[in-house]
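JOB MANIFEST
job_type = single_chain_structure
chain_count = 1
residues = 106
[input]
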Amino acid sequence: MSAELEAQTANISLNENSAPAPSPAKASKPKKGKGGDAAAPQVDRPEFIEHRNRIFDELFQKQKEEIASKPREKITITLPNGSEREGTSWETTPMEIANSISKSLA
């Protein structure tokens, strides 16, 4: 078998002219920046957008005031495994409970 391998490799040349041609360069794509393009032209928004934003702001403010007026009371949160956590009504969030159990849950 070594004689067969020797015969196959006898005519291989390692000079510079026989090197494989480099692969053709790929066309470069424009890179996408994060957060949008700062040079993007401003587009005029339709009038209804301003009206919609105004209504949203009014409703959001009303909701914040309503939640702020709710009584804050101590509560006990019972988890599915039976353990209990202390919290405050209208303040303690599910994310805070998850964080108190394990950082990997949040």
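[summary]
The longest helix spans residues 47-69.
The chain has a mean pLDDT of 80.
exit_status = 0
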